[in-house]
Amino acid sequence: MAQPKRKAKVANIDYSKVSIQFIEQYVENFYEDAVEKKIEGAKCLLYLCFSHENMEFMLENETLFATMARTIRDDFRNSMNGYLLQVIINSKFQNQIGDTTIKIIEHEIKRYIVKVKEFKQKTEDLQAATGTPQYEEMAQILRKEERQLSLMIKRQEKVLFVAFHLLLNLAEDLQIERKMKNRSIIGLLVTMMDRNNPDLLFIVLNFLKKLSIFGDNKTEMKEQGIIEKINRFIPCNNQLLLQIALRLLFNLSFDEEIRMQMAEQGLIPKLVEILKAPGFRALILKLLYHLSLEDKTKATFTYTECIPLVYQLIIHCPEPIVGKELVGLAVNLATNTRNAERFAQDEQLEELINRAIKFNDTLLFKVCRNIAQFAPSTLETFERYLEQYIMMAQQCGENTDLQLELLGTMVYIHSDRWEEAVHKTNFIEFVYNSLLSGFAEDDIILETVMLVATICRNDDIATILANSFLIKMLQDLLGAKQEDDEMVQQILNTFFKFLFFKPTREIVLHQTQMVSIVLELLSDKNPNIRKLVNAILDHVQLHDEMWKQEIKTRRFQVHNQVYLKLMEEYDKQYPSQDGMYEYYYDDRIQGQGEGIPDDEDFDSDDALFFDNNDLANRIWEDND
To answer: What span, in angstroms and rounded, lies between the C-alpha atoms of 505 and 507?
Structure first.
């Protein structure tokens, strides 16, 4: 029977006698064949490292580091303890031994895989031997090997901790970090995430966090399935691990695909649960904000406690202005219909509006604006605040951000109370001033244009608008902003609304050039604008016979512009009536053949020509 391998015993060292004067003796121990001698020398050198004076002297000793690097490279398979000590010493000086350290890490990972595979195989063999005479003996041997495997993993994780700690320090140099990336350091780190040693995991996650600030590294981590690996740490009992795991997630969450993976792995409900812990709240809010950027993930928040928690955090915020991360999350969530309705339930919307009004919180007003847009059922609540919104918008002064949110909210208040509010607040004059392009920002102008369309709800308000200069101003604004498709579309939508009421319709059709301008937009490149233009022209034809014929002619010209352009070129080249005939049948023009015989039977040469005006006058529609 083979004798068990004896462990190397190292003599007890009297550290009181360890001195920098004997450094050469300690270095010579690395040349000994006995492993215990090398460990003894490493321990003495490590003891010297605790003195700054000794370290300065040791840095000048080139033989020391060259010898240790050679010993690590050649003998690391023989003694894990010896390697551990030498790596610690090198880490004190951050010597350039990164390449050797990575090789050792790769070796330890391979050894771990082999040992675990062998143990699993023996476990399966034991299960297959159940009920046989050899079962008890095999079980005893397996228990012994399990203890040995556990001890090996424990020692190995100490080595890996020191090795990765050394590489992390070396990675402070970006050039060295790039070399590590080329040596697949990310793959090695992701592999370590399956281990259970807290110290090792902390170093690994910290290293990954450092690497994750670069886009290429994030892509590689994504390919390595890092989100699935990190899922086990959220939440976990170790506060330090949880903190560093959340920071790593935050760095990764700047990538859209990774955000989708986080949602698919079920991280949103877990993060919402951690939001209840004050210590992690600031970081969790940032993470949830990133996750709420995707429309596909917003619906997931509906089925968590996130919205009630966010509401409570906003209402009970000790500062007058709610923090940007918190209110930013609320802004994003409110762009989903179900989320907006959850924000508005149980009189919560009134509390949000009251707080926004009390502190003039612009971003909180933006939350209310999104609720108004995506939750039409809240109209009754916003109606009660209509006059207050109008007064605040008129008193904003230079605070254009606040004014923008107030106007944007009022756009979605489709209420018959506008007539009363307009009379009480002199709102038309305010709208007129907001539309002055030389004094107002484009965003303010756009929201004001949309607001005019909202206000125009009946003949009484239409009469007020018709008696103002707003319609003429909107026409001028359309000419000035013709390069802005969004502005053009909203102005056209407002004029379309004017056509539904007689007072404004009469002004548009007979006292402005709007119909002519709209006709010019028939061939616009934007399909939404073309669709709106056709709707306006259809409505004009119903109410004005004078424009009806011109609209038909223009539509024909736009629809057949290629044909008309070709005809115009022919007319210029062949001004005579028979020019087109000669083009097709004159031998000199064709350059070949004899043309068509004179006895060809034609009713009239004029059959080849058409009058454009005559074509335009025809009815190009199917009539029943």
So the answer is: 5
CB environment 542-579: b (16+ within 10 A), e (fewer): eebeebeebbbbbbbbeebeeeeeeeeeeeeeeeeeeb
Residue 349 contacts residue 311 (beta carbons within 8 Å): no
Q: What is the pLDDT of residue 606?
A: 43
For residue range 7-33, list pLDDT tens digits in order. 445 557 777 778 887 878 877 877 777
How deeply is 166 buried, as exposed, middle or buried, from its count of CB atoms within 10 A (0-12, 13-18, 19+)?
A: buried
Amino acid at 187: G
Please say whether the beta carbons of 569 and 551 come within 8 A.
no
In three-state secondary structure terms, 441 is: coil
CA distances from 261 to 47, 225, 329, 588 (A): 48, 9, 19, 73
Q: What share of the chain is helix, strand, coil (3-state, %, to 5)?
A: 75, 0, 25
In this prediction, residue 574 carries a pLDDT of 64
Amino acid 57: pLDDT: 73
Q: In degrees, to the nearest 5, what angle opens at C-alpha 609 toward C-alphas 606 and 612?
A: 135
Residues 494/496/501/502 CA torsion (nearest 10 deg): 110
Sign of the torsion angle spanned by Cα atoms 409, 411, 413, 419: positive
- CA 488 vs CA 265, 405, 425, 474, 492: distances in Å: 44, 21, 28, 10, 6
- pLDDT at position 624 over 50: no
Half-sphere exposure of 365 (CA within 13 A, CB side): 23
Q: What is the pTM of this model?
A: 0.76
Joined together, the tokens standing for residue 280 give: 């992690």
* Alpha carbons 66 and 157: distance in angstroms, whole number: 26
**Amino acid identity, position 270:** K
Which residues are within 8 A (CB) of 52 and not within 5 positions of it... i.e. 6 or more apart?
none
Pick the more confident residue, 135 or 369: 369
Evaluate whether the domain defined by 422-568 bears CATH number 1.25.10.10. yes
Number of alpha carbons in the 13 Å side-chain half-sphere of residue 28: 4
The reported pLDDT for the residue numbered 23 is 77
Please enumerate in sequence order all residues whose Cβ is within 8 A of that of 508, keeping only pairs 6 or more positions apart, or say none. 471, 495, 498, 499, 514, 515
The answer to whether the beta carbons of residues 65 and 87 sit under 8 Å apart is no
* Average pLDDT of the chain, as a whole number: 83
CA atoms of 603 and 596, how far apart (whole Å): 15
Where along the chain do the CATH 1.25.10.10 domains lie?
422-568
212: which DSSP letter? T
Q: Can you list the pairs that 310-317 forms with residues at least 24 positions away whose Cβ atoms lie under 8 Å?
A: 311/343, 311/348, 311/352, 314/352, 314/355, 314/364, 315/351, 315/352, 315/355
> Which 3 state secondary structure label does DSSP give 467?
coil
Report the b/e string of 481-511 with b at 16+ CB within 10 A: beeeeebbbbbbbbbbbbbebebbbebbbee
DSSP H or E run through 402: helix 400-410
Q: How far apart are CA 121 and CA 555, in angstroms?
A: 81
CB 259 within 8 A of CB 284: no
Using DSSP's 3-state secondary structure scheme, residue 416 falls into coil
| Token reading at 413 | 């208040």
Compute the average pLDDT of residues 95-117: 83
* CB atoms inside a 10 Å sphere around CB 309: 17
Contact between 321 and 315 (Cβ < 8 Å) = no
